[in-house]
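Good morning,

Both structures are done.
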Amino acid sequence: MSFLSRLRRGWQRLMADDPPPLKPEAQEPPRRRGQILIPSKKPKGWEIRPAEAAPGVLPEGQALAMDSTLEESYSWANARWNYDGVGFPGFSYLADLAQIPEYRRPSEILAKEMTRKWLRIISTGEDEAGDKSDKLRQIEAEFKRLDVQTRFREVAELDGLYGRGQLYIDTGDTDDREELQKPLVRKPGKVKKGGIKGLRVVEPIWTYPNRYNSDDPLRPDYFEPQTWFVMGKEVHCSRLLTIVSRPLPDILKPAYAFAGLSLSQLMRPYVDNWIRTRDSVGDAVSNFSTMVLSSDLQTLVGADGQELLDRAQLYNQVRDNRGLMLVNKDSEELKNVAVPLSGLDHLQAQSQEHMAAVSGIPLIVLLGITPSGLNPSTDGEIRTFYAHIESRQEADFTHPVTVVLELVQLSLFGEIDPDIGFKWEPLWSLDEAALATVRKTDADTDVVLINAGIISPMEARVRLAGEEDGPYTSLDLTEEITPPVQELQEQHGLDPTAPGEPAEREDITPDPSEPRPGSGLPSEARLPH
């Protein structure tokens, strides 16, 4: 039925003597939280239960693992569970959300920031032949070959999108099903030289937990899967590094396939609110202006209302700045009704900013929105964000990176050096102007300390040469530097160490026209006498 036909039928019912029958009162719709429908009671069939595995993940004939203890706990919890619209949506649904920029961009930003500056391989001791710089260079080259930085960025991104990211350590035993079930012990007898072939990122939809303890919280393997199924292969957990940055309560871990709470699921109410507000603002802008014709409808409708419909259709077809609308000056009036648009931008901006709040990412980083007002600055927000990223590096990456570092040492040298480790590079760095100010302050401090006899010039040179990323790392500390004052005294035949009264010492004033020896004695300076 066309629009004109529906409109004609509506006018006919409105003008008829008998009004149309009223529809029965609709039931009250369920209340809403964001875009999530929340029923008044737990829907039939919804309960806490282990997540289902995707086809092909479990071996043929393998059933879902759930012992009697866990089954009793689930029965008890489901009897007391108050459904509030929250539950595991499934990896396929989370993969669908990964296509939407509002969900994908926060996970990408966090993953890139956690691996942007990356880390530095360091040593705290020396070997018999000297320092360990050669070992460090080999380890750094192996990290680049394995592309460890990229692999960890991908794992962190999967953790944000799905709640779990896993990194498979390839030792060349991928097709040996029996070997895959054995622990990958970090000892020379287990990992041979050249044994690390590569690192593989595995999405959580292709893995499923197998064996875990659910009846004794005092054991270290309580709700910690010891093996995983990866497309039909059983793999020991030591070969599949698992990163979960937002873990769930123990009773919910099997329901989420031992994944954590994904950032996408955390952001869903806020993203839904933003999308709904954005669409509402767009609709308001598209329909903010409406033309209203005040007239005597009884005389225009006639028998079937065709005259009124034809007139409305004609006006819509010619409605623009060059169109013409004819009205009766005595009985009709044409006016424009416009909805005020002021404040819509603030409402839309506020709903957009809520997404930054739940993700913990500053507006300038997530949305590119700079602060307004007098002397705006985002330094404090950026520093807080970097502190959050550094804490996540320590909590989520330190253990798996340590495992990879030890395996790389076994693969390269056949042993693990306890003096070799790593440290995370700081994310915050000064700009050129601030860095120059800091160096100037340090130089002035060195001059004061040297003149006071607290430190020697050589000690100041050692400090300059030891600054990481400083401009004086190439200083030759074996070269003996003569202080400018001593050099000037020697040029005039004075013994700097000779005793004597001030009156017996020669008053030496350098000639301003002569080039100054050394590096910094002003032309108007005098030697003490």
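Second structure follows.
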Amino acid sequence: MELQHRRDSAAVSAATAECDEKNDKKKKRRSDSTTSASTSTSSSDCCSLRSACGPRPLEAAVAVAVVLAVWALLLVGINGHKRVSMKEKKVREVLE
């Protein structure tokens, strides 16, 4: 158990160091190519879409949109079926 904890801690430390290194490189590139006003926004890298949704936030957004579209279509279909079946029931009552 202790060995597993040490391995996990080492992996987290390595990943954190790699992420910090990448962020430092980004900040350096931004400071080299832009004004000092835009470098203040680079400090919010920890709260960016990339950190929230992974390396491809567009794919995550598309997946969410597809799931919501299917859900909405299902609700519309169920509601339409319910309405049609109610109308059908009324027509049968009138014809009898």
